[in-house]
Design goal:
Helices cover 59% and strands 9% of the residues. The chain has 638 residues and is α+β, with helices and mostly antiparallel strands.
Amino acid sequence: MAKEKLTMVTLSGPVVLVDTALQRFVQNREFHLVNAAEAMRAIKKLFPFKTPNPYSVPLKKAYDSMEIFKTAPEYRDFTARDFTARSTTEYFDDLYDIICGLHEELDMLNDRIKENEITRAQLNQLHGIDERLADLVDMTYVEFRFGRVLAVNYEDLYESADTRSDAYLIRTGEDESWVYGIYFALPGNVDQVDAIFGTSGFERIHLSERIDPTVTPDEMLMQIETETNEAREKCKEIELTIRKIKNTDSDELFARYSHLRFLNESFELRSYAGHRNEKFFIVGWVPDRSAKDYADECSKIPEFGCVLTKPKKKAHFNPPVKSDKGLISNTFTPFLKMYGMPSYYEIDPTLFMAITYIVIFGVMFGDVGQGIILSLAGFLLWTKKRMWLGKIIVCVGISSAVFGFVYGSVFGFEHILPGFKVLENGNAVLILIASAAAGFILILICMIMNMINGIIQNDIKKLLFSSNGLAGFVLYGGVFAGAAFSFALKTNVFTLPYICLVIILPTLIILFADPLEKLAEKKKRPFSVKIGSFLVEGFFELFETALAYISNTVSFLRIGAFAISHAGMMSVVFMLSGNGSNIIGLIIGNAIVMGIEAVLVCIQVMRLEFYELFGRFYGSGGESFSPNIIDYEMIPKN
C-alpha cells in the first residue's frame, strides 16, 4: 500500500491569536498535531501554555442538561450563527440553573413519594386503631412496640404472649407472608419481653418520621394520600415543563453544544503548542498534496507565518503514516497494531500480513463445512456485536472452505469430494516439505522487503551487509536452494566456487557488517573495539544467525503438521460417530474440533507472522496519521 507523502507545517503568530490558529488551521482538518517544543528543540526552547480550560465546566453542564433531557448529543452547524464564546457559556450556565432546579425539585418530590409509600404501608397495618399514636408511644407506665412476624409463627407467638402477665399482643394487620401487630410491656420487663418476642421471630418496625403522632393512623393515612397525589401532580407539571424547554430549545441547544464542544476541543490542543517572546508556534503534518494550498490560506492572515518543511530521514522524530488501505488491509490492521504500526520510512506490511495469514490459516484448517460455519459465526460477530475480529474470522473461514475443496473434506467426510487427501499416499510427507518450502520463500520475500526498507532509509548496512540484507539473502537462499537442487538432481551443487561465492563471502560480509558500513560512510575508525573481541563477538552472532535461519525455516513445518492434525482429528470424529451415521456425535465432534483448532491455528499463524517473518524486515514504532476530528455524538471519557 502506498503511503501519502507528508509535509511538516510550522505555524507562528502572536500569542493572543493561538486559539484562532488552532480553531481555523488545526481542528477538524487534515492536520496531525505534534508537540511543538519537541519538534523545535534543536532551534529554540519553547514554553507550554498553562491556562486552565474555561470551557470544561460549561461543557459538563451541557452534558448534564442533555442527560436530564434524556437525549444524546447531536451536531448542529453553528458556523453561520452569531455565537460567541461568552454567549454560549452563559447560555449553558442559565440553562443548567433552570434545568437543575427543576430536576432537584423533581427528585425531592419523588423521594417524598417513596417515603410516603413506606409510611402508607406501615399505616395500613395500623388500620382500625382509633387512638392517637402519641397516646400509644408516650405512655408512662407501659412500653409500646410495633412490628411483624411470619404468619406461620404467629400462633406460637400469641400463645407465648398470652401466658405472660407483663405483655399484651394485639393483631393489627396481615399480608401474604406476615402478620402485623403491636404489643405492650411493663417498663421494668420490656427488655426481657423484647428478647422473648425476638427469639419467636418478631421483627420490630420503627414508625416512619413522616407519621404525625397527634392524629390517628386513619387520619394520617388520609393526609399521606392527599400529599402523595399533590406530589405526583407537581411531578407531572415539572416533567411537562422540562419537555417544553427541550422541544423549544432543541435546535439551539445542539448548536450551542456543538459550538462549545468545538471551543473546548480546540483549547485542549494548546497542550501541543508552545510560545516564546509573545509568539506561538504550532507544528504538525499535512498531506503533501494540500501543503501549498494550506500555506496560501495561512498567508491570508497577515499576523501568521507558515513554514513548510520536507521530512528528513534519520531525524529525531519521524512523520506519522497515512496509508490508503483496502478492505482486506483495514480488516487486519488491529492485528498489526498488536505488533506496532509501521514507520514513515518502511514498507507497510498490512497487505502482506493479510494475504499470508488468510492463506496459511486455510492450509492449516481446510474443511468446506467448518469453513462456512466459521465464516457465518464471524459475520454475526461483525454485524451483530460490531467486533472487528468478526471480519477476520469471515476471511479465514472463506480460506478454510476454499482449501477444504482442495483437500476434499466436508465436516470430516473425506470421500464426498475429490482432492488432496492429507493422510493418504504419502501426502503427509509431501505437505510437510511444501510447508518448509513455503517458509523458505516467505523468508526470502521478507529479506527483499528489508532491502527495500534499506533503500528507503538510506541504510547501507540493512541493504547490503546485514543477515537480512543482500548478504543474508545470498547466504540463506544459496544454502537452502543448493541443498534442494542437490537432493532433486542427485548431484553435488556445492562446488568450491559455489561455496566461496554463496557461503563464505556472504558470511564474511555479515561478520564485518559494522566495519563495512563505517567504511562505506567514510568514517575513520571502522573498528570500535579490538579485533580479537570483535571476532569473538561476531562468531557468536554468526552462530545465532545460522540457528535463526534453520529454526525459522523448520518452524513453518507447523503449517503441514496442523493440516495433518486436523485431518487426523476429523478421521477420529468420523470413526467414533459410526462413519457419520451418528449425527449427534458428528455434530459434537465437529464442534469440539472447530473450537479447539480454530483458536490454536489462529495463534500459530500469528506466531509465524510476528516471530518468523516480521522480525526480518519490520521495525514498527510508527504512528498513524491522526487528525483532530471531533465526534460530536460521542461523549469523551474523563
